[in-house]
Design goal:
This protein is α+β, with helices and mostly antiparallel strands. Helices cover 29% and strands 47% of the residues. It is built from two helices and ten strands; from the N terminus they run αβββββββαβββ. Strands 3, 4, 5, 6, 8 and 9 form a six-stranded antiparallel β-sheet that branches. It has a four-stranded mixed β-sheet with strand order 7-2-1-10.
Length: 174
């Protein structure tokens, strides 16, 4: 009687350990798979910037930037409002405001941030921005590098995201 109860108790303890071990192990494997999927996600946020001339006058050049954010994954997430830097011939000519605002991007969905106005001050005609404005006035194709900088927030982890795109400035008024 006493011996049988001791064996029964040991068997129950062993099963408890196996069950707890299985649950923890399964959780670790599931968590690892989820982590691997999320680590891949950095490359899965796709940004498509569009830059147009909004205004060109004696005070300078105002460019309108619209950014399309695409999420081709099954994981919805949010990002910080992107910071945009415009680079012409290796020199930053303007940047957007920094906003502490979250943007939700649904799974297999997209979000558009539009009408970000970037002012390029009219400096002396010999500066880089002077060359940029001269090229626009001469209707030459202007190549700009658009740097999109943000943070992807997946709840328990924040992943920095930076992408550089080279675009040809759209000469039509926005």
């Amino acid at each position: 009687g006493l011996h049988q109860r001791t064996i029964k108790k040991e068997v129950m303890e062993t099963w408890k350990k196996i069950t707890v071990g299985t649950i923890i192990g399964g959780g670790l494997i599931g968590g690892t798979v989820y982590l691997l999927r999320l680590n891949k996600m950095n490359a899965e946020l796709e940004t498509v910037p569009m830059v147009k001339i909004h205004k060109l006058d004696f005070s300078g050049l105002t460019l309108r930037v619209d950014v399309q954010l695409k999420n081709p994954t099954r994981t919805a997430f949010k990002i910080k409002f992107p910071f945009i830097k415009l680079v012409y011939k290796g020199t930053t000519v303007g940047s957007s405001q920094v906003l502490d605002k979250d943007i939700q991007i649904p799974a297999f969905g997209e979000a558009i941030i539009d009408k970000m106005m970037i002012k390029v001050p009219l400096m002396n005609i010999f500066s880089i921005s002077g060359g940029l404005i001269k090229a626009i006035q001469n209707k030459e194709p202007v190549k700009l590098e658009v740097k999109t900088i943000t943070t992807i927030d997946i709840g328990w982890k924040k992943v920095p995201y930076t992408k550089a795109d080279t675009i040809t400035l759209s000469q039509g008024k926005a």
